Amino acid sequence: MVKKIYNVVLQSAIGDGATTSNENYFYDWTQLPDVPYLVSFSFMSATAALTSTTQVASLYIDLSQSYNQLATCQAGTQSAYKGQFLGMLLYQGVAAQNYVYAENNTNPPTYLNGRPRSNNFTVEVRYAQDAYFTPTPGVYCLVLSFQEC
Questions:
Q1: What pLDDT was estimated at residue 123?
Q2: Does residue 46 sit within a domain?
Q3: Of 4, 7, 105, 138, most Cβ neighbours within 10 A?
Q4: Is residue 79 part of a domain?
């Protein structure tokens, strides 16, 4: 039996968020069978003046991935984003001609028990659980790859 892969393409130019660090999308997940998946992703932004190299860009999306967890300090409270972490983005470029990206094998895959449940969801680029990545990356294309298990 062949394991199918479904690719869902998200382009920030059609998202309706305030910035590219916080874009809202709609996708009818019933187009995918309700089976377990390994989810990987690729991400590519346009060039932008990403002058700060003191931040690590992280990608957060609520796909109902309960197996991703964020650790906190011993005295800390749990993050509202504890399960939404999907992976890290890398820097490339020089001076004001930087971009962020991730290849399909940059991060480990995420396991889902079934297809995502919420058709309305947000893609966030953060450097901390309570702060967006700044300056915001340029327009981007994010490809979510759902491989049947």
A1: 94
A2: yes
A3: 138
A4: no
Which secondary structure element, helix H or strand E, spans residue 6, and what is its range? Answer: strand 5-11
Domains: count for the chain: 1
DSSP assignment of 69-134: -----TTPPPPTTTTTEEEE-EEEEETTEEEEEE-TTSS--EEESSS-S-SEEEEEEEEETTEE-S
pLDDT score of 26 more than 80 = yes
Its pTM surpasses 0.85: yes
**The CATH number of the domain where 10 resides is what?**
2.60.120
In a domain, 51, yes or no: yes
- Helix, strand, coil percent content, the chain, rounded in steps of 5: 0, 45, 55
Contact 6, 146 (CB under 8 A): yes
Helices (H) and strands (E) in the chain, counts: 0, 11
Strands 131-132 and 120-128: antiparallel
